[in-house]
């Protein structure tokens, strides 16, 4: 059975539903620091309140559930972290340590994501290698690099089966993102439906790696089910599906909404973060070691996002 932390987040809420569809609802315990709203899919199955920085609480729920796998998603994302570095450290590092200790004691395998945010300005930006310089200048990036190293350490020192990927920006229509730098790539679709226009806080010409949520969900399951004997890298596989700037995604939206207008009000904080990240990552290690292959490109993602949001936003 599986224990998920951060189950109410952008990735967590969809991953819980996806995992329950594969492994059975009762086999996936969702946890978060607050209760799910009635009627949401997370609320349809087992749920417990868990503050991941409470080491005893994390150990207790793990002893009770004895999960085969812990999927640790609770974290503060890049833009929010810059506003509150201490909170980001406590949650992103304290929560991770608590989760690794719980996994070590319970013998659970352990998935936690890193991010394109684990790279910095001195990292090669085009086709960023799997193994390269990592000197991020955001506190989020610092916690992601440290997290990658901690997970490697727990595997090497204690034999914990730790695994993870460096996620690009994730785009989905179920749960809006919270506090990221790549959130514009989701917001633009909501505004395209609601207002036929969007004001971007990221400047034209700023390229970032992105991925449609279905590909992200499949990647987690594929990696966790992969033959461990084939895994050379473990906790930081580069994975991405597309790289675009605001102009490119606006042009894709105009294929469906011709009158869509894009303008800019650049946010210097999030622009600086975005400028320090890669433009496009090399994913050959993930492809080689566990068969990573995304299904959605920009065209396919944009068409499905607009189709799904037309239903979702009209209804509510
Ligand atoms: C963020 N969406 O913007 C997250 C993610 C790759 C970006 O880490 O902080």
From TrEMBL:
Name recorded for this polypeptide: UDP-glucose 4-epimerase
CDD domains in the record: TDH_SDR_e
GO MF annotations in UniProt: L-threonine 3-dehydrogenase activity
Organism ancestry: Bacteria, Bacillati, Bacillota, Clostridia, Eubacteriales
BP GO terms, sorted: L-threonine catabolic process
UniProt xrefs under Pfam families: Epimerase
Family label: Belongs to the NAD(P)-dependent epimerase/dehydratase family.
Domain named NAD-dependent epimerase/dehydratase: residues: 2-226
Superkingdom of origin organism: Bacteria
SUPFAM superfamilies with a match to the protein in the record: NAD(P)-binding Rossmann-fold domains (SSF51735)
């Amino acid at each position: 059975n599986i224990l998920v932390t951060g189950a109410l987040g952008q990735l967590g809420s969809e991953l819980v539903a996806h995992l329950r569809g594969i492994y059975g609802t009762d086999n996936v315990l969702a946890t978060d620091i607050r209760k799910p709203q009635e009627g949401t899919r997370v609320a349809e199955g087992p749920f417990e309140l868990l503050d991941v920085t409470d080491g005893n609480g994390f150990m207790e729920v793990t002893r009770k559930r004895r999960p085969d796998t812990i999927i640790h998603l609770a974290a503060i994302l890049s833009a929010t972290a810059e506003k509150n570095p201490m909170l980001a450290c406590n949650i992103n590092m304290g929560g991770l340590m608590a989760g690794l200790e719980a996994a070590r004691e319970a013998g659970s395998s352990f998935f936690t994501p890193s991010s394109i945010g684990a790279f910095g300005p001195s990292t090669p930006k085009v086709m960023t290698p799997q193994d390269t310089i990592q000197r991020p200048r955001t506190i989020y990036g610092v916690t992601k690099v440290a997290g990658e190293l901690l997970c490697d350490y727990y595997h090497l020192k204690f034999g914990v089966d730790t695994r993870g990927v460096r996620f690009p920006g994730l785009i989905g229509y179920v749960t809006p993102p919270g506090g990221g730098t790549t959130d514009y790539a989701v917001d633009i679709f909501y505004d395209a439906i609601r207002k036929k226009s969007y004001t971007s806080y990221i400047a034209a010409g700023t390229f970032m790696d992105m991925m449609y949520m279905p590909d992200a969900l499949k990647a987690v399951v594929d990696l966790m089910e992969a033959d461990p004997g084939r895994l050379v890298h473990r906790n930081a596989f580069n994975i991405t599906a597309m790289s675009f700037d605001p102009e490119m995604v606006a042009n894709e939206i105009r294929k469906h909404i011709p009158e869509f207008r894009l303008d800019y009000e650049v946010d210097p904080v999030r622009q600086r973060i975005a400028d320090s990240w890669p433009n496009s990552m090399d994913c050959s290690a993930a492809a080689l070691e566990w068969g990573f292959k995304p299904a959605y490109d920009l065209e396919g993602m944009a068409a499905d996002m607009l189709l799904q949001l037309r239903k979702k936003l009209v209804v509510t």
